[in-house]
Amino acid sequence: MKLYGKNPVIERLKSNPKSIKRVMIDENHVDLTYIRKKCHQHGIGVQAVPHSKIQRLAQNLNTQGILADIDDFAYVQFDDLLQNAFEKRRTPVFLDNLNDPQNLGGIIRTCGALGVFDIVLPTTESVSVTESVLRVACGGENYLSVARVANIGNAIEKAKKMGFWILGTVVEDAVSLTEQKLQFPLGLVMGSEEKGVRDIILKKLDAKVMVPMKNQRMSLNVAHATSILCYEIVRQKKLRRLTPRSLPWISLLKQGF
Questions:
Q1: CA torsion, ordered 197, 217, 207, 189, to nearest 10 deg
Q2: Cα separation of 150 and 134, whole Å?
Q3: Pairing state between β 186-190 and 165-169
Q4: How sure is the predictor about 246, in pLDDT bands with cuts at 50, 70 and 90?
């Protein structure tokens, strides 16, 4: 696989340098000293090449003058992802037949940045982690695990049996996200761009929420909606960890102020 762009390559050098086979840098660029230094530290070959070669290899995508040959993306076993999520209080995000690489890349970027999420994809009728996805993810793939499963419904059932509370997004007949008290450990289900969460999967949800919007005629794509859901999950999880003793205003109330 190839990895394009300055930030994706830098993040890979920081988190998983062993997966990088070689790095090619546009010979006209002079501001990539940090990348050259990190490659030298990890024994990764660096080759200065003409701009035309970079563009040809990247099929004219914007590479910011850097391209890396890397190992194929390494998926993890779903059982391992689930066990790790349960033990480390991470949230698996089940993507029900997502088809757009841009959306998957955006979701990986958000989940990687927030740091407490993993992703589960179906093996069929779903986008996989490709070069295009990694380009949009901007290094987020280095901070989460991705598993592929033959049946997303069965994977959700397995998570439920382990104790995960399953939350999903729908357009109608749902509680506003701001009014829903989340339960943990939690799994999140997001639907496809065209059809949303399928009916067979809706039956497996413990709660259905919708993103509150003032302009109901507008809509969010699945990557934007996932960002909002994931932020709220992190926010409520943080609040859940706070004890009355850690909230100053509660202490003051107890003292009669």
A1: 40
A2: 23
A3: parallel
A4: very low
